[in-house]
């Protein structure tokens, strides 16, 4: 299992707007080879601190996704979001190999 976290800080007053965007996401990743799950995590104290968690069966499946045209299309749309404050957010991406999964 391969897990990727993309963590970013949105202004607290815009956290609900960002959450709504993810509730209405395109779901293109859901059909990617090896895709397992998508989660949006919100920090328990800092409302604007959000983490997108993706799980794939393998690192290779994840890399195939990020090299795909669908991935590029989604991220191009993000850059064109009308709220430039949100469009300019750059996440910190961390990648993990699952060692123990009980």
- How many distinct domains? 1
Radius of gyration: 14 Å
Weakly predicted, low-confidence segments: none
- In the CATH hierarchy, what is the class? Alpha Beta
- Helices, by number, come to 4
Protein name: Antibiotic biosynthesis monooxygenase
InterPro entries: ABM_dom, Dimeric_a/b-barrel, Heme-degrading_MO
GO molecular function: monooxygenase activity
Domain ABM: 2-90
What does this structure look like?
This protein has one domain: Alpha-Beta Plaits (2-Layer Sandwich). The chain contains 4 helices and 4 strands. It has a 4-stranded antiparallel beta sheet. By secondary structure, it is α+β, with helices and mostly antiparallel strands. A hairpin with a 6-residue loop joins strand 2 and strand 3.
Short description:
The protein is α+β, with helices and mostly antiparallel strands and 102 residues long. The protein has four helices and four strands. The longest helix is centred in the last third of the chain and has 11 residues, at 69-79.
Core attributes:
alpha+beta, Alpha-Beta Plaits, about 100 residues, single chain
